[in-house]
Amino acid sequence: MTELCSVIRCGVICEADYTGSRIEHADVCGTGMKGGDMKYIIKKLTTTAATVLIVSFLVFLAFSVIPGDPALSRLGTQATPEALSALREEMGLNRPLIVRYGDWLISFVRGDMGESYSYHMPVQSMILEKIPITLTLTVMSFLMMALISVPLGIYCAKHRDQFADRFIYTLNQVIMAVPPFFMGLLITWLFGLIFRLFTPGGYISYTKSVSGFLYYLIFPAVAIALPKCAMTAKLLRTSLLDEMKKDYVRTAYSRGNHTNGVLYRHVLKNALIPVVTFMGMALGDMLAGSIIVEQVFKIPGLGRILLTSISNRDYPVVQAVIVLIAAWVIAINCLVDIIYKIVDPRIEE
Amino acid sequence: MKKKNWNLLIGGLLSGIMLLFIVVGFFYTPCSPEAMDNAAKFAGVSAKHLMGCDHFGRDIFSRILKGCGNTFIVAFGTVLIGTLCGIFLGAFTGYYGGVLDEILMRVNDAVFAFPSILLALVFVSLFGGGKYNIILALGIAFVPSFARIVRSEFIRCKNMDYVKSARLMGAGDLRIMFVHILPNVMPVLVSSVLIGFNNAVLAEAGMSYLGIGVQPPEASLGRMLSEAQSYLFSKPSMAFLPGLMIVLLVLGFSLMSEGLKRER
Predict the structure, then answer these.
(1) Interface test with B, best of A12, A185, A290, A315 (most B CBs within 10 A)
(2) Most confident of A58-67, B37-46, B201-210
(3) What is the DSSP string of A30-84?
(4) Which of A28, A74, A225, B99 could form a disulfide with A144 if both were Cys (CB 3.0 to 4.6 A apart)?
(5) ipTM of this model?
(6) Does A317 touch chain B (CB under 8 A)?
């Protein structure tokens, strides 16, 4: 059963494939409840913490075994051997890997993320001011996705096989095929250059004007949200139609309920379950996707700093940003699992 | 009467045309995709330049032909690595289970929790960009999802009657795994492979857009888009055409996988 449940969470591959057959598994899994919710939540939190630890260790390991000496890249090639070995001692590069990892983790959690090689300033001060930008962008696109896709999915399911449904279905298929950064370019061209609703590249910092900041972010948020929106609407439509075929729906109708009553009071709740999971995964994807879209709209967020650090080989910054984003994605996945469990107590762990 | 499977039909047709395009691009392009011609900067549509020229006077049509080919190579390589490793990992862990399964699946989970773009970025920052590094990076990022699908299918199949009877007839584990069970996993796998291919195309385009995928002067659709961005106002077709190619490529395969799912 656990295996089948885990199939449901097959993100990368099943994003668009996330229909029919997968949903059936949710029902297969619903063989009754084992243990309390609390126990499940605690177990989930533990495995999540373990995953974060594994991921952070892997990232740390990757950046420790790279060819190249951090001491050398900090001092430059003209450094004397004495200065190098002194700095190595100071940076603790001579100690075993696992000890260094422990130290790094503890200081990371405390908010000390090391020092940037290229800017010679603490990483946390470089990153902290970028977090709200990327976070706002992601949350905005998530809200857009949820607000557009749910009504759209319901509408399509209600008007199944009519012209509007067919039209939206086709449109969704096309939109799903548009990469977010190309969507960003199209939006820049249409709204920025033709309609002149915003100045492309004219990002306004939130310290200057909050409304200007939010207004500018609307456009990249649409670019990130639209493809996900199409997927979610399609998934919800399929999920709703599958649910409509079930016995309890017939019973609800036979008791004299109207279509809307059955739909909103009975069906929607069940049909939303797989959609919630998908939205959770989409939130993680959106965060990663914003790295690219930030480039299109020239927004100085986490993605921008990550890419400049990669080209500068500024490993402490790269490492910190990657661990941060990965931890955030894993945390969201955990949250989704917990919500999933609360919404649908039939799910076994 | 059976309803016509429009998805499969249109998807197949679209993919067929795109593949033809790509194959032609491998052997023949009207102009050299890297040749710059100062006189032809931003040239419009003409018989010589079917889609005009870019800011270096390079023929856009030739670049698109070559770029599609590069994107296809990366996506194909990625899916190949992902599928082959995924099949092996999934088959062994699903069939045997046990401690190895548990460990591999935890590592799998950890890799899976990583958005594929992020994993590719880590890889690129460690080993540098370029076509082949991107294939490797994306390939690794794709392994867990394929492994999961194959594993769960193997778990479903391993106690079925036909497997038991094969075992009674004395078939070895390897034979059961790859001759008996694997063909039954194929239908599920094929549609995942098509979607995986799409994700790879999108990821490659994204990587090249960021400038860490296919390296210049080689043509790539993502790179063309990022170059076109500065001329979005004066020559929007420079961005639209490569973008449209990505959309058509992805659309064809996604329609096909949709259609195949209905056939099943």
Answers:
(1) A12
(2) B201-210
(3) -S---S-HHHHHHHHHHHHHHHHHHHHHHHHHHHHSSSS-HHHHHH-TT--HHHH
(4) A225
(5) 0.86
(6) no
Smallest CA–CA distance, residue A240 to chain B, in Å, is 18
Asked whether the predicted pLDDT for residue A230 surpasses 60, the reply is yes
- A226 and B CB contact within 8 Å: no
| Nearest-by-CA chain B residue for A320 | B122
Per CB-CB distance under 8 Å, the chain A contacts of B239 are 182, 185, 189
Q: How far apart are CA A20 and CA A25, in angstroms?
A: 9
pLDDT score at A310: 83
Task: Assign residue B171 a region (left: φ > 0; alpha: ψ between -120 and 50; beta: otherwise).
Answer: beta
Mean pLDDT, rounded, for A78-107: 79
DSSP class of residue A309 equals H
The alpha carbon of residue A176 is apart from the nearest alpha carbon of chain B, in Å, by 8
Q: Name which of A263-267, A275-279, B102-106 the model is least confident about.
A: B102-106
Give tens-digit pLDDT for B107-160: 777 777 677 788 888 888 778 777 888 899 889 888 888 998 899 889 888 888
| pLDDT at site B2 | 59
- Helix (H, G, I), strand (E, B), or coil: what is residue A19? coil
B106's tokens: 């935890």
Report how far Cα A71 is from the mean position of its chain's Cα atoms. Answer: 34
